[in-house]
Amino acid sequence: MSEDAAQDLEAQTSKSPENHKRKDYLHWDDYFMATSLLSAKRSKDPVTQVGACIVDSQNRIVAIGYNGFPRNCSDDVFPWSKAPKRSKKDDLLEDKKMYVVHAEANAILNTKGMSLSGTRLYTTLFPCNECAKLIIQVGISQVLYLSDKYAHKPKYLASKRMLDAVGVEYKRHIPLKKTITIDFEED
Ligand SMILES: [Zn+2]
């Protein structure tokens, strides 16, 4: 092969996208938030589906979780309804709040007690005060969230008060990709 032909061939192959790093790969934060969104899809809650994902400093997923009833508390027996305000005791016992384990709590519990010091938690909804307590106690150092739609409610104000007091960082994740399609039939 002449020198010119060799150079042409080299130019052709270097232009081919198959010889280069893909440009549209998923970035870590989008990947972990997408994992949280995907696990939210496991939730049976008819109104609110939340997913969470805990990641270590090496970008390894250590646990995921979504909101649901405790293990062996049947999704078909326990109530998915919300009791009206100022309800009587019997109505309150039919409120899902009494029974649901939040996504963040499930993710933490799914680590089966491993050290979570310095990990990050990705969640589709800002953590409530009860989850913030757990986040702090297990040593999670950063929370990334998609939505903070209940920011004005006391539970969420209390959550921020605790996270601020101990220096757990939190920030809204702005996705680089608006949508990610998962097609089971793609080659
Ligand atoms: Zn919570």
TrEMBL record:
Cofactor: Zn(2+)
Pfam families cross-referenced by the UniProt entry: dCMP_cyt_deam_1 (PF00383)
One GO location term (cellular component): cytoplasm
GO biological processes: nucleotide biosynthetic process; pyrimidine nucleotide metabolic process
Family matches, as InterPro entries: APOBEC/CMP_deaminase_Zn-bd, CMP_dCMP_dom, Cytidine_deaminase-like, dCMP_deaminase, dCMP_deaminase-rel, Deoxycytidylate_deaminase_dom
Descriptive protein name: Probable deoxycytidylate deaminase
Disordered, as annotated region: 1-20
Similarity field: Belongs to the cytidine and deoxycytidylate deaminase family.
Lineage summary: Eukaryota, Metazoa, Ecdysozoa, Arthropoda, Hexapoda
Active site: E104 (proton donor)
Gene behind the chain: Dsim\GD14864
Residue ranges annotated for the CMP/dCMP-type deaminase domain, each copy included: 27-170
Biological role stated in the UniProt entry: Supplies the nucleotide substrate for thymidylate synthetase.
Enzyme class: hydrolase
EC numbers: 3.5.4.12
GO molecular function terms attached to this record: dCMP deaminase activity; zinc ion binding
Positions annotated to bind Zn(2+): H102, C128, C131
Keywords on record: Hydrolase, Metal-binding, Nucleotide biosynthesis, Zinc
Recorded catalytic activity of this chain's protein: dCMP + H2O + H(+) = dUMP + NH4(+)
PANTHER family: DEOXYCYTIDYLATE DEAMINASE (PTHR11086:SF18), DEOXYCYTIDYLATE DEAMINASE-RELATED (PTHR11086)
Highest taxon listed in the record's lineage: Eukaryota
